[in-house]
UniProtKB/TrEMBL annotation:
Keywords: Hydrolase, Magnesium, Metal-binding. Its cofactor is Mg(2+). Transmembrane segments: none annotated. It comes from the Bacteria. Pfam families: Inositol_P. The keyword Hydrolase applies. This is Inositol monophosphatase family protein. SUPFAM superfamilies: Carbohydrate phosphatase. Belongs to the inositol monophosphatase superfamily. It comes from Sphingobium cyanobacteriorum.
Amino acid sequence: MTTRDDLALANRLADAAGAAIRPFFRARYDTQIKADKSPVTEADRAAEAAIRAILEKERPGDGIIGEEYGSVREDAERVWILDPIDGTRSFIAGRPIFGTLIALTQGGWPTIGIIDQPVARERWAGMSGQPTTFNGKPVRTRACRALEGAGIATTSPHLFADGDVPHYLALVAAVSGGSPRQGPVYGGDCYNYGLLAAGFLDIVIESGLQSYDFAALVPVVEGAGGMMCDWHGEPLTADSEGHVLALGDPARLEDVLEAMAAVADHSHHH
């Protein structure tokens, strides 16, 4: 059973990760640091090590799956899933829109999710059965009456596999209504899902995500009234292919799926 204690611990884990990451952000290094000791790797490792040290001490029976240091006890009922820096390229470029992702899953389902931006000191926290909070105050997604003009974001169109691109572009066309001013916001990684949860974006679309990329996002988005699913509208599971849709307003799901499917129809006309 997830408790407030688990949420308090998750917040402490995020605090520890942030303290480990901040000294590396936009830092200058002299040339003596070897290529394999790049600052991002040090920041990633320092953050994950800080989180793991606390978990091993306070929750020795829980499993841990981390991007940097692998898995321990991953068959446990309760497993913490960690991505110390989601948005590595933003981090390297000095853009404070990366985030630390911390999820607690029970029986395979995410029950707690944290998205933490340690430079801006912004934190979204989601927990099953509770409203999502942003820096401690409840937030909600916004209503989205129509697909045209919706706020849509993705990290980069270059991350889509070739077969995914037409579906993505079909959705962009439906949202933009022919105007690039209504087109996508690029960059952002996990940060976009926080913005969607807080009512500043309507749609986030990505492919190629790993379970540690989306486990923490689900409680945040759903606790704010949004929904997350794959590109067929099916719920995300550990077996999902990494095609992810987040919608601030679940009422737009059919419209989004219809727009993305419109690609197949065009092929018949040529």
